[in-house]
Specification:
- By secondary structure, this protein is mainly β.
- Among the domains are: about 60 residues, no CATH class; about 130 residues, Head decoration protein D (Virus Head Decoration Protein, Chain: A).
- Helices cover about 5% and strands about 15% of the residues.
- The chain is built from 2 helices and 12 strands, in the order βαβββββββββαββ.
- The protein has a 5-stranded mixed β-barrel.
- β9 and β10 form a beta hairpin.
- The protein is rod-shaped.
- It starts with about 120 loop residues before the first strand and ends with a strand.
Length: about 425
């Protein structure tokens, strides 16, 4: 049996009242291990209620255990709300200020709702004071509540209907005014010299951000990196970005640098790209530019695209078009259509969109070329020129006629018939 028992059925009257001008109003001490110093039990309201105008409503202190411990089987273990300050503030000189642990759900969950109705508990004894403060009198406890008022000149609350017989812990619903104050922050992490927010996981996502119409994760810094990513993995990247919309035009990674100093992206190490690279500015290389292709080509409008397949010898045609060669020792020779055999162009100039049929023509370098040895066997090193066979080269047997009509030099021989041979293009 308890040493002190306080019981009352009168409204607005405490069962036990403790009051002190210089120390605790009520102090409970328990010497039995595992038992609380003070216990508050209420089947339908708060077990313990603390209120203060100037200091902490409830304060818990411990040298070795939890300062305040909250546990719930089906609901929130600890719930904190504030209208102008922190809903929950945790501070520690040597360890975590706030720790959230969950075996099957969120360890810590933060949500911000600027314009949602808020419910909280308030002693009925404070109701008259609150109503007078906002300039509305409540003549009867069964009244329908206070009317609307100007939130810019009075308190930012609206009182709603009260029951006929309110209890000392009467629940009230308060609605903050719809001021369109902007977006609230679900979770804020701040630190002077350490981490503002730390997420750790052994086998899953440490920190995840999701947004329907805003930024999923936002990082900023005044004097250091806005976001920093490090991995020790042998295969995966430190930062991975995907744009999963197959019809979207946005980039998976976008970087922009303000001003003319510095660069938007810096890579210390190699860069590997599997797709096309489009550059609107200049390209400057301090060392070599290496291309896997074999020739230096340029796009031309083609007069007879059906016949001008890779390896075909081309000559100047009407206007700005090239056409398939069809005469021996033609000084109009322009080059060979690039891409035959296992050679591909290394550089293509004048690549542009056009309603004309355009193809790359090798002007310098190695290219596979159609050749016809019926005019004479071709050996390695022979100079080649146009032939009467459309699109085919032949050995330049007549030096006088070959001047200005040479395609290049054969890199492989062709004893008879027709075929593709590698040629070092060098127009002369």
């Amino acid at each position: 049996m308890a040493n002190v028992i306080g019981t009352t059925n009168a409204p607005d009257t405490a069962g036990v009242l403790g009051k002190s001008a210089k120390s605790a109003g009520v102090k409970g001490i328990a010497e039995a291990p595992g038992q609380p110093g003070t216990a508050g039990v209420n089947p339908a309201g708060p077990g313990v209620y603390g209120e203060s105008d100037m200091a902490n409503g409830v304060m818990g202190k411990s040298r070795e255990g939890c300062g305040v411990f909250a546990e719930s089987v089906k609901s929130t273990g600890a719930y904190a709300r504030s209208y102008e300050g922190f809903g929950l503030h945790g501070e520690s000189t040597k360890n975590s200020g706030v720790v959230g642990v969950s075996r099957a759900w969120f360890g810590v969950y933060g949500e911000s709702k600027d314009e949602e109705p808020i419910e909280f508990w308030k002693p009925f004894a404070e109701l008259d004071k609150e109503l007078h403060r906002v300039g509305h009198l409540l003549e009867d406890v069964a009244a329908t509540g206070a009317e609307a008022f100007d939130p810019n000149t009075t308190a930012a609350y609206r009182l709603f209907p009260l029951p006929s017989h309110p209890t000392p812990q009467q629940e009230m619903t308060l609605h903050p005014p719809k001021r369109k104050r902007g977006i609230g922050i679900g979770v804020v992490g701040k630190s002077g010299t350490g981490r503002g927010v730390l997420g750790q996981s052994d086998s899953n996502t440490a920190v995840e951000g999701n947004s329907k119409s805003g930024i999923g994760v936002y990082g900023s810094s005044d004097s250091f990196e806005g976001m920093h990513a490090v991995t020790n993995s042998l295969r995966t990247a430190a930062i991975t970005a995907y744009n999963d919309n197959p019809f979207g035009t946005g980039a998976a990674i976008y970087a922009k640098k303000a001003g003319n100093m510095g660069v938007a992206g810096f890579f210390e190490g190699g860069v590997f790209v599997t797709g096309d690279v489009h550059v609107r500015g200049n390209i400057t290389a301090d060392r070599d530019i290496c291309c896997m292709g074999a020739d230096f080509a340029e796009d031309f409008n083609i007069a007879d695209p059906a016949q001008a397949e890779p390896g075909t010898v081309m000559v100047l045609g009407e206007g700005d078009h090239l056409e398939t060669s069809h005469a021996a020792y033609d000084t109009r020779v322009a080059g060979v259509i690039s891409g035959a055999g296992n050679y591909r162009p290394g550089i293509i100039l004048d690549k542009q969109s056009s309603d004309q049929s355009r193809k790359p023509v090798a002007l310098v370098g190695k290219v596979y070329c159609k050749a016809d040895a019926r005019y004479g066997p071709i050996t390695k090193g022979d100079l080649l020129t146009t032939s009467d066979t459309p699109g085919h080269a032949m050995k330049a047997a007549d030096p006088m006629r070959a001047f200005g009509a040479v395609i290049g030099k054969a890199l492989q021989g062709l004893g008879n018939g027709q075929g593709l041979i590698p040629v070092l293009v060098s127009l002369r």
